[in-house]
């Protein structure tokens, strides 16, 4: 009997289900609606759901000092993208433990969790799902063994990605280590009975469905890094003051020079982390850190063997580190499946990043309910849909719902830019309804909805005939 194996990968800092009234993402809401438990109508014999908390999350059952330490550690993890390989391995390990031949794999993610889900899809295409292993005991499916095997597969999938240049026209530059990676993947499949033993051959399993909310391909989020750098600079300065003592020597001599240099360096790092360009020295230096090297997002093609994929994307997100990464869509990837269902859909929705993927207070989640309703409908409309527990997904979508703005909510904290959207991907009907309305709430101001990113979009151009262009907008980005 074929089962559904659902893997849910949440966004940065998201760990749903910790408290009853927690602000949770759309990923967790879908997990809650499809998991089996004593109060669920989902048949546990036919469906298994696994939830992986987002990058930089931590358990809550820690003391005061423990929580402070974990928060500092998690802030660094979120800023630098540390631990993304473990998130990918956790999801893949769950598949190793639960999958049997014939089962359907569903991958769902938000933000950097969407990055994780798409990487897991690529990992499955490379390595498949192990069914055997060398040794008398064969394949071990306990958590520790599955995770160790998953980490090995992750290293194969990430092999050579640091040298990849996705924007290059020359295929040899786009993915120079591809042949080596395919050879390593073939060795893995041969050893573990997970597909063709030939380089470039097919694995024994790929996702049946991938559904993602606003994929973020920049794993290192340098915006809040100044929250780490500034205290560090102050600590160094404090050491200098302690060394100098209290008295006339406070602002003289070597200690004063030491303090001034530390403060100056800290200020410069703060400035670069907040306002530096993508090609600035700090961001380039961060990109060379060994911990960040493995997961440059080089794989934007949807594997031809994946039957169905859906992507909900933000029109209004204006933070540099949250640029959406679309699937490359062409006649081969967006074609209709054999049964008449469209293989790929990428759709634009009104609102910023978490207005699409959720995690705002429930009273402010009318826009995110739109994207969630769409994704759930797409999943339910599949030829072999997952089970949803009755009454677990009660939504109140509204195209006139509150739109958030993280740059206004945290002024000066995050580097921002006015972004255009790509012409690929259709606008959701709710976007046209919001454009047609006299006004809607934009964080703190009620005004007509006229995002500059839609000015030249063919579905929205008629709404901009009399609307002035906002200062600083770059039409070439569209």
TrEMBL record:
Record-annotated T6SS Phospholipase effector Tle1-like catalytic domain positions: 3-378
Coiled-coil blocks: none
PANTHER family: PTHR33840, TLE1 PHOSPHOLIPASE DOMAIN-CONTAINING PROTEIN
Official protein name in the record: DUF2235 domain-containing protein
Lineage, uppermost ranks: Bacteria, Pseudomonadati, Pseudomonadota, Alphaproteobacteria, Hyphomicrobiales
